[in-house]
Amino acid sequence: METPCRHLVVVLGDQLDREATAFDGFDPEQDLVWMCEAAEESTHVWSSQQRIVMFLSAMRHFAAALEEEGVPLRYETLREGGLADALREVIAQARPQRVRLTQPGDWRVMQALRQAAGETPLDVLEDRHFLCSTARFAAHARGRRQLRLEHFYRAMRREHGVLMDGEQPCGGAWNFDADNRESFGPDGPGFLPPPTRFDPDAMTQAVIALVQARFATHPGQAAPFGWPVTRAQALQALRVFVDERLEHFGRWQDAMWTGEPWLYHAHLSAALNLKLLKPREVIAAAEAAWRAGRVPLPAAEGFIRQILGWREYVRGIYWLRMPDYAEGNALAAEHDLPAWYWTGDTPMRCLADAIAQTLRHGYAHHIQRLMVTGLYALMHGVQPQQVHAWYLSVYVDAVEWVELPNTLGMSQFADGGLLASKPYIATGRYIERMSDHCRGCRFDPGERVGERACPFTTLYWDFLLRHEARFASHPRLALQVNNLSRLDAAQRDAIRARARRVRDGSFA
Ligand code: FAD
Ligand code: SF4
Questions:
Q1: d(Cα 278, Cα 235) in Å, to the nearest integer?
Q2: CB within 6 Å of ligand 2 — which residues?
Q3: Which residues are bridge partners to 38 per DSSP?
Q4: What is the pTM of this model?
């Protein structure tokens, strides 16, 4: 029988930070770290192979660093079953006085571990990785009927002194979107700085082989794999982004181009969400680049808003509203997710491109997620929980606290407008404006009915018809709904008929 330990410190796959609260007061003479690769974490949603490699490889590298430091560690390589059973077993063996855990990124995991701890006291500690604690967010939300990013973001800028000139925002404005968000134009992006990719070392190669064997039927592919899996790699990726791409981040933040997955984005979300990087250091690097005159203010501000604003804001909403938030379906959407979301096998060129790169790299940038895959699912009327399961499965950066509000709230309007002020709906014209996809597509974004009608355009009009009563006096959607008054009964019927064919897949 083992000598009982004082603290059993649980480190989950998205908590790879030696400075996390769970390590506070760690004493190698009395305490033990526990990490576990539980298969259920890759199967409770049908996790893509790329995502599984990301988590397991980063966990193994973190464990190796702890061992090198001499930290007592019990590391369980891939085992069948869930985290809760595994925790029960290790508690029975190590008999700790207390279990310590930094707040997990997933409500389901938190409940499971609380139960598994049983009689042993479990300390769930605030996650100081984030700039806004859950209590601070709850205070911000108190008494507000609607939560809007802009109020929260300004408060965060003031509280953390980010891009501030005394009491005023640097440059005299909080937001420079008017200078951002261009498309590339007909000739495309031209030269693009290459993304920072890392050759898999022996440890990552072993994980790739494991995933290809154990999770062979899971979507996407395990290789090629080039994501940062250590803190040193993540810091290098941050440095290169700031030096080579941040300058153009804002300007082309929303642009898309066929066969170009990386563009001027940071590709840092997985490193941030697994806690290889701290948001404070990412924000500081962007602000310093602006203050040194290396990047324009709209680029730095646009980038910082994503992290200090959106990232903190969606986390606040997640912990404020779970578990009910996950059940939201304000628009009563009831269709199944089309099977081609798992393969990319669709004649719609924009979707085929976004899904192919998603399955290959576990990555798509924000506008591809919001205005291609998300927009289509919203207007098709896919049941939001199925959309949520897809997004949680396929991206290397997917952790529920950030994925769920983005999917259910921002993209599918399933929370009825708590997070976003209106549903993001658009015809194929939006995609035509922001990309080259429509040029090579058999559909025409300008057509809403007929054999060449773009499914986005058909479904846009069908969405307005289906939700006419609900949004007729909505302050931000009424104008769009009003356009329905120009349609006679025959035109409405034609849209509905074409939408039925889009939904049942007989449109192409
Ligand atoms: P960049 O575009 O370069 O942005 C910089 C950083 O800002 C990102 O690394 C990320 O940390 C942060 N960020 C940007 N937008 C958001 C946002 N809306 N919410 C929170 N953080 C943001 N992001 C995830 O990290 N995990 C997810 O599972 C996830 N699921 C999403 C699902 C949907 C339907 C949508 C619309 C968005 C989702 N996002 C998610 C947000 C965003 O798309 C990704 O953070 C971003 O595309 C990651 O790529 P990047 O690192 O190149 O980001
Ligand atoms: Fe996508 Fe429609 Fe454009 Fe085809 S025409 S690429 S389906 S938006």
A1: 10
A2: 348-350, 428, 431-432, 437-438, 441, 443, 445, 454-456
A3: 79
A4: 0.97
